[in-house]
Amino acid sequence: MYKSAYILVGRRAISHGTAMAANKKDDFMCFDPYVPQCPYGVGREPFAYIYFSDCNKDT
Fold this sequence. Notes:
The chain is mostly beta strands and 59 residues long.
């Protein structure tokens, strides 16, 4: 049960558990299951990303 995100435009800072990470356009991230996360758009341009979670799929 993993989660992932792909950044379409803009930049973001994300709080992932106890760590912070910075990402920009065209970056791809994978997240561990059950770890709290909170993305923040940073900079002056709009921020948009695609978020995928496979928690409801059969494996």
